[in-house]
Amino acid sequence: MSWADARVLASLVRGQPRTGTHAERLEAFYAPQAAHYDAFREGLLHGRTQLMEWMDPPAGAHVVELGGGTGRNLDLLGPRLQALGSFELVDLCPALLAQARNRARDLPKVRITEADATRYRPAQPVDLVYFSYALTMIPDWRAALDNALAMLKPGGTLGLVDFYVSEADPAPGLARHGALSRWFWPRWFGHDGVHPNPGHLPALRRLLPEHRLMEGLGSVPYLPGVRVPYYVFVGRRPASTA
Ligand SMILES: C[S@@+](CC[C@H](N)C(=O)[O-])C[C@H]1O[C@@H](n2cnc3c(N)ncnc32)[C@H](O)[C@@H]1O
Fold first, then answer.
1. 65: CA distance to ligand 1 center in Å?
2. Residue 40 pLDDT class (50, 70, 90 cuts)
3. 122-178: per-residue pLDDT in tens?
4. CATH class held by domain 3-236
5. Where are the domains of the chain?
6. Residue 15: left (phi > 0), alpha (psi -120 to 50), or beta?
7. Least buried of 9, 93, 138, 242, by fewest C-beta within 10 Å?
8. What's the whole-model pTM score?
9. How far is it, in rounded angstroms, from Cα 226 to Cα 8?
10. Candidate from 42, 52, 87, 138 with most ligand 1 atoms within 8 A of CB, to mutate
11. d(C-alpha 133, C-alpha 192), whole Å
C-alpha cells in the first residue's frame, strides 16, 4: 500500500464528523486527503468514463457539474472539453476546489465556483448538468435534483453516476439487490457521509421518463471479491418537470 492510499484510508476510517454544518463536515473529511483523492477514487468511482461517453456534450454546449470535487471529470471529458461553450464546476468543499483550480488553471472555459448544489444557479439555463458520485453526499438530494432540472434548458440533459441500493421490490427490468446488500452499503458508506439510497433511481426514472440507464457492480480498493452497486443514468428534461 502506498503512503498516499494510507492517508486516504485513515480519513475513511475516521469518517465524516457528526457536528458542524454540511460544508464544515465536508472540509474536515476531505482536507487531509485532498491531494491523494483522485488516485484512490480511480479504483472506486466506477462508470465515470461511461457517463461522459453517454452524455457526449455537443460543441458549444454549456455544462455544469454539481459536486465536481477536484475536477477529475475534466480529464475524462477529453477533447470534448475544448469544444464546449463553457464548463462550470460547483462544489462546497474548499480543499477539493483548490485541487480543481489547479487542474483548470490553463483551461479558460472552466469556471470553478464554491456553492451549494441545492441552491446554485448559473446566469443562463444550460444544456447539460451532471452529478458524479455527488448526489449520495447531498443531504437534501431532492432539492439538488430539482435545482439541477430548474437550471436546464427544456430538452437539456441530466447525467448521474453514483452508488445506490435497489428497492426491496424494484420495477420490472431493474436489478434487485439482496437484503444483506441493501442493509450493508448504506451503513458502510454512511460513516463517510455517503448515502446510497433506494429512492434515487425511482425518482430519476419518474422525473425523466426519457432516459438511458446502466446498473453495475464495481470493485472496492483493498477488499478483494467485494462488489459495490452503482448506476449510470442520462435523461432528457421534459418541457415540464412538475
Ligand atoms: C465523492 S465526491 C465526487 C467528486 C467528483 N464529482 C468526482 O467524480 O470525483 C462528492 C463531492 O460532492 C461535494 N458535495 C457534497 N455536498 C455538496 C453540496 N451540497 N453542494 C455542492 N457540492 C457538494 C463534495 O464536496 C465532494 O466534492
1. 9
2. confident
3. 999 999 999 999 999 999 999 999 999 999 999 999 999 999 999 999 999 999 999
4. alpha beta
5. 3-236
6. left
7. 242
8. 0.95
9. 19
10. 138
11. 13
Tracing cell 432516459 back to the chain, one arrives at 211
CA 185 from centroid of its chain's CA atoms:
17
Contact 50, 161 (CB under 8 A): yes
Which residue puts its alpha carbon closest to atom 24 of ligand 1? 67
Residue 23: all three cell numbers together: 460544508
* In the predicted structure, residue 74 carries a pLDDT above the cut 80: yes
Cell 426491496 belongs to 168
Do the strands 86-91 and 110-114 form a parallel or antiparallel pair, or are they unpaired?
A: parallel
Quickly tell me which residue has 439487490 as its cell: 177
- Which residue's CA is minimally distant from atom 23 of ligand 1? 67
160, 233 Cβ separation under 8 angstroms: yes
